[in-house]
Amino acid sequence: MTQINTHLPSSDTEMDIGIGGMTCASCVARVEKALNKVPGVVSASVNLATETARIRVASAETTDARLRRAIRDAGYEPRALEVAEAEANNASPWAGFAPVGFGLLLSIPLVLPMLADLWGQHWMLPAWMQFALATPVQFILGARFYKAGWYALKALTGNMDLLVALGTTAGWLLSVWLWLTAHEGHVPHLYFEGSAVVITLVMLGKWLEARAKRQTTEAIRALHALRPDKAHWISEEGEVDVPVDEILTGDLIVVRPGERIPLDGELVEGQTQVDESMLTGEPLPVSKAVGAQLTGGAINGDGRVLMRVTAVGHETVLSRIIRLVEDAQAAKAPIQRMVDKVSEIFVPVVLVVAMATLAAWMFTGADFEKALIHAVAVLVIACPCALGLATPVAIMAGTGVAAKYGILIKDAQALEMAHRVQTVAFDKTGTLTVGQPRLTQQVAAPAQDLDTVLTWAACVQSGSEHPLARAVVSAAKTQGLNLSAPTDLSAVPGRGVQATLAGRQLLLGSLRWLQQEGLDTTLWAAEVPALQAQGATLSALAERTATGVQGLLLLAFGDEPKVGAAEALVALRARGLKLVMISGDNLAAAEAMARRLGLRPEEGEVRADVLPGDKAAQVLQLREGGRIVAMVGDGVNDAPALAAADVGLAMGNGTDVAMHAAGITLMRGDVALVGAALDISARTVAKIRQNLFWAFAYNVAGIPLAALGYLNPVIAGAAMALSSVSVMSNALLLKRWKP
After folding, report:
1. 3-state secondary structure of 132
2. CB-based contacts of 171, cutoff 8 Å, min separation 6
């Protein structure tokens, strides 16, 4: 498992701050506006679902305290993320229900007469008793609405709290006025129950919403739970149990059977089977022997092993995975920008509609009491809570369940774009093939000793990590050949290497490069086409002499398709996608492998003889005409192509650079995960659209009904609370997704 980079190099600094007290999309807009006004802030993105702000600052003078002050001045509570996480982790299912329960106890007696009316029973609580029950709900439980609404007014904006405060206060004041001005002996109809029930229902909706939010963050909490607290450290006195935070890189620790591996490291003694399913989604245990890499958070099998720690703290794979998932959940999808623009003007428009409703009813001859109740209903039903939650909760649920199955989505834009992909381009080696080529055949030039020239080739390649280089060195060692280090070694990117060995100036690389240097490949006129037809990748060793470049050794390498790759490509084709394999191999070798994978060279599904630096150009060519292209790769030389694609998917068994450039990382080298990533994207975007539809539908249908008098404030309050809960519940259905 390779460690994952999670940050782009930048002179800017990112800060995350928790925020308490936000209730709707308008709150998000106000906090973002307040933060963006702070000198030195480059950008601020606030997420209602996670209740966090991610702020990018360019100035060292822009301190955490200054940003927190801006949040507080906007009317919200800045919070430490650790405190918020601890509260979420330790919260019981009924956490925060006490105020809601108190509100229900006080509101139910007010509602009972309304229910009795349905069965023909006409009775009413005395006015003083209604006042006594409703007032604590209005001004004690409802104090939060007044406080937040006041801050919104000061900022010349509006939010859900302002609408609730205005609507319920109007109903309460109207009831008090009707009570105090009633003729003796006349019992007026009062609206205390409307104000009290609306506040209680809004609080109940927010409590249900918070409870559902805790479920959307289960994926993050599950990843945090993979970290053991203790490690069995091998000290000078022997085995000692110490906190994991005290372990240093290079320490030796023991992992007992059935325990979680505390940190990343290398197995130095023993062998075992390791369950990495929570990290990679791979259901089967993986065998580990001496020299194997162990990943913190995985579960050790039945072997007691000794490991040397290679990464601690934020540098471990698990920490980086958590960071990637948190980044994705904190990010805004492009569709959210449209929602933000709508929500910014939504509350002021609703206030105008409510005033127009009041004026219109009075103009048509209705008394002030009736007109005001209809205006209150408009204010209550129009709260844009669901609008602010529609997108982020779906993203949280989608990225969380994807991480569970080994698909790490680094940014919301990749998540939103992936379902629109029309063409999928694959790197060949290490992505569609195993990526561990073997030296299958060696052909020495006439008058050359095979062992000697193979030794020279292995010496030239001995310092390289390239898969073909490792194959040459492995073959030489298998034959017992003695290797020595070359001098003046230099790489020619995308072509090969050149070095000096025992006074000889040697070149080893692709046939095309060596031909450009002057090699006459007719030495192997019969062998080259025959090996290429078999799908072999060819390289050659040559010597630069006074008379030109002389061929010494032809090398043929063979690779195998990954298990399940052909079936995965069939599944992608069934989705209507165009498939392309990009390879640096010659055309014959690339086409031979493509056919083994089920690709169709005759339909243009193979791009061969592509230099590493030209892969990005190939991707840009595929994007011509507006086609949406995904690139799947794993190597350093794939990074530009991954960045050039609309959606980059990096194999998690590849390099840091590739994963750094990609929007989506597949934690195991399984081609089937490409289709799974596109699928979870499609399902998440579908949930976002469904949520936005329902969020808008509640308001589009509810506001006219309230204005026309078909909804009273209690029904409006219930509908508004239901809209938030339904959006949350719909997003949580994503948790049932499986690849």
Report:
1. helix
2. 191, 192, 194, 195, 198, 372, 373, 376, 713
- Does residue 258 sit in helix, strand or coil? coil
Q: Which residues are catalytic?
A: 427
Mean of the pLDDT values across residues 116-129? 77
Are β-strands 504-510 and 629-633 bridged in parallel, bridged antiparallel, or unpaired? unpaired
Q: How far is C-alpha 714 from the chain's CA centre?
A: 39
Cα atoms found within 13 Å of the Cα of residue 381, Cβ hemisphere only: 29
708: left (phi over 0), alpha (psi -120 to 50) or beta: alpha
Give the model's pLDDT for residue 655.
53
459 contacts: CB under 8 Å, gap ≥ 6: 483, 484, 485, 486, 499, 501
Q: In whole angstroms, what is the distance from residue 170 CA to residue 191 CA? A: 10
Residue 187 is given by DSSP the state -
Element (H, E) at 470: helix 467-478
Higher pLDDT, 239 or 209: 239
Q: Does the pLDDT value for residue 86 go beyond 60?
A: no
Average pLDDT over residues 598-622: 90
Q: How many CB atoms lie within 10 A of CB 117?
A: 12
Amino acid at 181: T
Return d(Cα 385, Cα 142) in angstroms, integer.
17
**Exposed (0-12), middle (13-18) or buried (19+): which is 735, by Cβ within 10 Å?**
middle
In angstroms, the CA 650 to CA 739 distance is: 18
Q: Classify burial at 95, counting beta carbons within 10 Å of its beta carbon; exposed 0-12, middle 13-18, buried 19 or more.
A: middle
| Distant-in-sequence, close-in-space partners of 136: CB < 8 Å, separation ≥ 6 | 106
Per the structure block, which two tokens stand in for 577? 């996608």
pLDDT band at 418 (very low <50, low <70, confident <90, very high): very high
Q: How many whole angstroms separate alpha carbon 33 and alpha carbon 152?
A: 12
Contact 114, 193 (CB under 8 A): yes
Give every CB contact of residue 231 below 8 A, 6+ residues apart in sequence: 241, 242, 243, 244, 247, 253, 262, 263
471: exposed, middle or buried (Cβ count in 10 Å: 0-12, 13-18, 19+):
buried
φ/ψ (deg, to 5) at 320? -70, -35
User: Residue 726 is which amino acid?
Assistant: S
In what side-by-side order are the strands of the sheet with 548-558?
A: 438-444, 548-558, 537-545, 504-510, 496-501, 487-492
Tokens of 531: 């090996």
Spatial separation of the C-alpha atoms in residues 268 and 293, rounded to whole Å: 10
Question: Which residue blocks in 37-126 are alpha helix, DSSP H?
Answer: 64-73, 81-90, 98-118
Give the Cα separation of 558 and 440 in Å (integer).
6
pLDDT at site 614:
86
SS3 assignment, position 463: coil
pLDDT in tens, 546-581: 889 999 999 998 888 998 999 999 999 999 999 999
Q: Which amino acid is at 381?
A: I
- Reference 164, options 721, 702, 552; nearest CA is 721
Q: What HEC string does 628-689 produce?
A: CEEEEECCHHHHHHHHHCCEEEEECCCCHHHHHHCCEEECCCCCHHHHHHHHHHHHHHHHHH
Contact predicate 259/299, CB 8 Å: yes
Question: pLDDT band at residue 625, thresholds of 50, 70 and 90?
Answer: confident
Q: How far apart are CA 626 and CA 629, in angstroms?
A: 9
Q: Side-chain half-sphere of 655: how many Cα atoms within 13 Å? A: 15
Residue 97 confidence (pLDDT) above 80 = yes
Side chain identity at residue 21, one-letter code:
G
* Token output for 337: 């920008």
Residue 157 reports pLDDT greater than 70: yes
For 655-710, write each residue's pLDDT tens digit: 565 566 788 988 888 899 999 999 999 999 999 999 888 888 888 888 999 999 89
d(CA 724, CA 43): 28
666 strand-pairing partners? 407, 651
Cα separation, 667 vs 480, whole angstroms: 37
